[in-house]
Amino acid sequence: MTNPLPVVLVHGFWHGSWCWSPVTEQLAARGVQSVAVDLEGHGLRGPAPRAAWTRPFDAEAFATEKSPVATVTASSAAALLAEQVRAIGGGRPCLVVAHSMGGVVATALAELAPELVGGLVYVAAYAPVSGQPAAFYNTCPEAEGGQSLPLLAADPELVGAARIDFGDPDRHEEVKDCFCHDVDDRTAAAVIALLSPDGPLGIPAEELTITPERYGSVPHSYVVCTKDNAIPIALQQRFITEIDAVSAAPTTVTELDSSHSPFLSQPAALAEAIAKAAV
User: Fold this and answer.
1) SS3 readout for 99-164
2) Chain centroid, CA 96 distance in Å
3) How far is CA 197 from the centre of its chain?
4) SS3 218
5) What is the dihedral of CA 224, 228, 230, 231, to 10 degrees?
6) Measuring CA to CA, which residue among 193, 202, 165 is closest to residue 78?
7) Which is the most buried residue in 40, 71, 143, 173, by most CB within 10 A?
């Protein structure tokens, strides 16, 4: 029996490698090696703006301070991810699993170094393969009803990031409803405490050149989250259609009746979908 591909788990905006912990346990139980990484500008690689921690809190400073991750782009993040995948695979291609805005970086990686990517699984993720930047899709009719943009506490063009004040307890119900409305309150509170304020604007703002010869040669799967309040299901389905237009084979689609965070609410079901793609 062929050993499953090593799995590299890629988080989305404001998150870090920590969010995949429940899934790595489930993958280990299925005999699948997995490693969650921090993207450039996130987690241990993502310093927060000073205003996020200054007390007393200054809302104006928080809304105007230039982001320390403003120089991060989709290309620079993909170059780092390539190094991470190369190290984790140890010479073997890996199955790259990307959530939300992490899908932009994974898409750029599959074009940059398709030889490193044995398969690409999008989990309620952006897949900007049509020549438009990821930010464009937030203006499309399919994005109507998405609840992440109203959470922004600063002009992204001014600060260089999509910035949210996760420290405001009055916004916690909105944050939970957007990202993880199907987890218990205790888990949601723990998640919100770990979220970072800045998502680098250079990731969704960059236009990617995607080709059938490189990106299209990689097998693709998409996990649709049917109760997603961050990336509406209609937008997820549009990404699948656009992937199929450039891919050599149809996208394998799995639906989960979950919020934007199935790694928290349905880790076993998500791990099962990932394990099938890794074979």
Assistant:
1) ECCHHHHHHHHHHHCHHHEEEEEEECCCCCCCCCCHHHHCCCHHHCCCCCHHHECCCHHHHCEEEE
2) 11
3) 15
4) coil
5) 30
6) 202
7) 40
Kindly write down the DSSP assignment for every residue of 33-94, as one continuous string: -EEEEPPTTSGGG-PPPGGGT-SS--HHHHHHSPPTTTT-BHHHHHHHHHHHHHHHHTTS-E
Rama region for 10: left / alpha / beta (φ>0; ψ in -120 to 50; rest): beta
In the chain, domain spans: 7-278
pTM of the entire structure?
Answer: 0.97
H/E run at residue 185:
helix 185-194
List, for residues 201-246, the tens digit of each pLDDT value: 999 999 999 999 999 999 999 999 999 999 999 999 999 999 999 9
Separation between Cα atoms, residue 156 and residue 104, nearest integer Å: 18
Query: How far is 254 from 78, CA to CA, in rounded Å?
Result: 25
13-44 pLDDT tens trace: 999 999 999 999 999 999 999 999 999 999 99
Q: Are 139 and 220 in contact (CB under 8 A)?
A: no
DSSP state of 6: P
Q: Which residues pair with 162 in a beta bridge?
A: 199
CB 13 within 8 A of CB 255: no
| φ, ψ (nearest 5 deg) of residue 191 | -65, -50
